[in-house]
Amino acid sequence: MTLADWLAGVIFVALNTYAVLGGADFGGGVWDLLALGPRRERQRELIADAIGPVWEANHVWLILAIVLLFTCFPPAFARLGTLLHIPLALVLIGIVLRGSAFTFWRYGADEAQHYWGVVFAIASLITPLLLGTTAGAIASGALGDRGPMSGDGFYGTYVAPWLNPFALSVGLFALVAFAFLAAVYLTLEARERELQEDFRRRALASGVGVFLAAVVALLLSLTGAPRVRDGLIFATWALPLHLLTAAAAITALAALWVRRWRVARGAAVTQVSLILWGWALSQYPDILPPDLSIASAAAPAATLRLVLGALALGGLVLLPSLFYLFRVFKGSVRLT
Amino acid sequence: MSDLLAARSQMAVSLAFHIVFAVIGIAMPLMMVLAERRWQVTGHAIYLDLAKRWAKGTAILFAVGAVSGTVLSFELGLLWPRFMELAGAIIGMPFSLEGFAFFTEAIFLGIYLYGWERVSRRAHLWAGVAVAVSGAASGIFVVIANAWMNAPAGFELVNGQAVNVDPVAAMANAAAVSQTLHMTLAAYAATGFAVAGVHAVLLLKDPANAFHRRALEIALIVGAPAAVLQPISGDLSARHIAAHQPVKLAAAEAVFRTQAGAPLTLGGWPDAAARETRFAVRVPYALSLLAFHDPQAVVRGLDQVPESEWPNVRAVHFSFDLMVAAGTYLALVALWTGWLAWRRADLARNRWLMRAVALATPLGFVAAEAGWMVTELGRQPWVIYGVLKTADAVTPMPGLMVPFLTFTLLYCCLGVIVVWLLYRHIIRSPAVPEWRGFYMPGGGTRDTGGAS
Are B449 and B212 in contact (CB under 8 A)? Predict the structure, then answer.
């Protein structure tokens, strides 16, 4: 492992953490949109209470990943920004609307409140879909180097890489996976038995949805993303990884079935993380397949060493603070 | 509108929007912590009410600041990929540090906002302190990155590639100290006077309202010292750009011809074609004196570089004068306030002072925005001064007018909503008029919480 590999790993850890923490905050918005039945308002309250104290901190994992990417792998960031301008701009609009609507909704306390809830929920649906789509575009290897004279035209250069069945299927997978995580977490947040059961049913349903979405994405990868296909099906590490992921998925669903909430949470996080690392392994050593490798995109060693030092020092401040935050707000909850 | 102009406009709108929230995010937590501390020391419930209101304001503004900051970090790549490709490795370091500072801020803001009943009083106050300190730190890191664009350091350019990259030297660039100092003071002065101004307006109607009196006091404690120190830091900045960014100074002062004993040009209408500024007031020798502390010093004019490398002289000169005028006004009001406070006068009942403070409400933000216009427009046509031109940094994607208009519309809507929310929930007098008439001379003890 080179220095650049380590930093690429750190960036992926930040993305992984964003997916399981920030992703669940998006998922909470999805369940807000789908709030149904007699306990609809209580479901919404629970979601907002669960997200409130932590979602700003959860959001920063994405920013951390972005600044580390442009510091350590500037050419990769430049190419992403150029070729994925459209979906990333849409993601930004989603993030802006979602973040501000959530706060206006929580602090509004007036007649417009209902609309903020709707904006928050719809933005929570669209943003993860597009985030997943950009991940799909990267994995598919459509972001190869193209000069100004590539002859692909506007559509071929700026739209086709992400507006295709495989990339969109990854977007769908991200959406379902985030909703699944959120539902699993909410079983632990609920203070009433009935709410807990509401989210148990949702977790079970979306858990099955995660499986289906993963199968669809894998099938589409056969033609849409050869690198992913070769990695996830034919590589030596593929089988053990699939077995582990399947074990985690089954554990999560079984634990939900028998109401072992903490086990379910651990297994769900493991499952989603393993799928993400499967993607990472399938495209290693490339940062942007097919032609930009981690080594060729890396910043000079002086920068990488300094960033690694800063990460270590920053971690000393950050990790205890995060631990404190989650201990204060996510400690054990008693049912009433 | 060309794609380059659309990209520049989108970046300008994004920055101008974000700066307002960034500035408030630096100073508002300090005010909130001061109010909470006073509540803990004096036991007056009025301070707790104040701390909670300011915390609510901080929450709303922080959320908008966080998302608009996210937009900017992505826009660096969406609009200026070639800039980031060259600069990322050199100047990404302060952005990474800013990431950590922002992380700390978000964590402790969560604890502060939602932890009133969950953590001890001492821990709660310290969470507020952590928010205030990390907010200031993240502002400083981002301004260091901007300072590098004005005074690039820590690399050598060989065939368009950066070699011998030294991120520490890049952070320690020549503009870093003067710019970070100027911006941090600006944040405290602008926010302090904006909050003080709003409460001054309300005190003009209701001078006995203890809630607004206490709010005014804390806001002025934060804003006034910064406003007084700001001209000194401005002098530091001016001397820096005189030495290191002479074209920016020449544009700010509309100096077309290099000359010794240069006068200070106030106002007027710079005419780049005729190379003169009409209708301006000129103070003899003052520019040489201010920029070099020597009345005979030579000030380099715009004639030192070809006209193709001139910034928009009219816009830079106008912005500069606007910044200086607004900043001077704040400094004078701050001095007047300090004098009256020293004489132990009742500030809230001094109607002329309250009018002057009320007039200052927007001026700190006007000065901050105008200052950023000077530093950004004054650097054009360069994005990295002397290294990379803005036109060479822009994305090759066509149709940039569309994202520009979309984000502008988005920010306009957000701006209106935020102002409306702040008015409804933070600024208005408390619904229960319990603080009415509870003026506490010398920190008296009559307010025991709605006993009227």
Answer: no
Question: Using one digit for the tens of pLDDT, what is the confidence trace for A98-117?
Answer: 888 888 877 765 666 777 88
Asked whether residue B65 is domain-assigned, the answer is no
What residues in B contact A78, CB-CB < 8 Å?
Answer: 77, 81-82, 84-85, 88
Indicate whether B267 pLDDT > 80.
Answer: yes
In this predicted structure, what is the pLDDT of residue B356? 95
Structure tokens at B452: 């009227």
Determine contact: A222 vs chain B, CB below 8 A: no
| Owning domain of residue B392 | 230-346+356-396
At residue A195, φ and ψ (nearest 5 deg) are -65, -40
Residues 6+ apart with CB under 8 A from B330: B189, B193, B223, B227, B230, B360, B363, B364, B367
Residue of A nearest to B78 (CA): A81
Ranking A125-139, B339-353, B370-384, B426-440 by mean pLDDT, the lowest is: B426-440
3-class DSSP state of B131: helix
Q: Do A93 and B410 touch (CB under 8 A)?
A: yes
Whether residue B104 has pLDDT greater than 80: yes
Q: How many angstroms separate the CA atoms of A262 and B135, rounded?
A: 35
- Report the C-alpha gap between A306 and A3 in whole angstroms: 11
Confidence of residue B47 (pLDDT cuts 50, 70, 90): very high
Residue A79 contacts B, CB cutoff 8 Å = yes
Query: For A291, which DSSP code?
Result: T
Of B114, B407, B424, the CB nearest to A110: B424
Minimum distance, in Å, between the CA of residue A204 and any CA atom of chain B = 30
Summarize pLDDT for B386-423 with one digit per residue, the tens. 999 999 999 999 999 999 999 999 999 889 888 888 87
Q: Is A209 on the interface with B (CB under 8 A)?
A: no
Mean pLDDT of chain A: 88
Within-domain flag for B333: yes
- On chain A, the residues whose CB falls within 8 A of the CB of B84 are 70, 74, 77-78, 81
Selecting from A67, A88, A106 the residue whose C-beta is nearest the C-beta of B96 gives A67
What interhelical angle do A113-139 and A165-189 show, nearest 10?
130
Asked whether the predicted pLDDT for residue A335 surpasses 80, the reply is no
What per-residue confidence (pLDDT) applies to A333? Answer: 54
pLDDT band at B449 (very low <50, low <70, confident <90, very high): very low
Question: Comparing C-alpha atoms, which of A118, A115, A123, A63 is closest to residue A90?
Answer: A123
Q: Where are the alpha helices (DSSP H) in B361-400?
A: 363-377, 390-393
- What is the b/e burial string over A118-138, where b = at least 16 CB atoms within 10 angstroms of the residue's CB? ebbbbbbbbbbbbbbbbbbbb
DSSP assignments along B72-98, one per residue:
HHHHHHHH-HHHHHHHHHHHHHHHHHH
pLDDT over 60 at A147, yes or no: no
ipTM: 0.89
Two structure tokens written together for B141: 């890191």
What number of CA atoms fall less than 13 Å from residue B421's CA on the CB side? 28
Q: Which residues have CB under 8 Å from B344's CB, separation 6+?
A: none
Q: Is B404 on the interface with A (CB under 8 A)?
A: no
Q: Which of A62, A67, A307 to mutate to test the interface with B (most CBs of B within 10 A)?
A: A67
pLDDT of res. B447: 39
Note whether A160 contacts B: Cβ–Cβ < 8 A: no
The pLDDT of residue A326: 85
Q: How many CB atoms lie within 10 A of CB A280?
A: 17
Asked if the model's pLDDT at residue A206 lies above 90, the reply is yes
Entry pTM: 0.90
Domain count, chain B: 1
- The DSSP 8-state label assigned to residue A234 in this structure reads I
Alpha helices in B388-433 (DSSP H): 390-393, 401-422
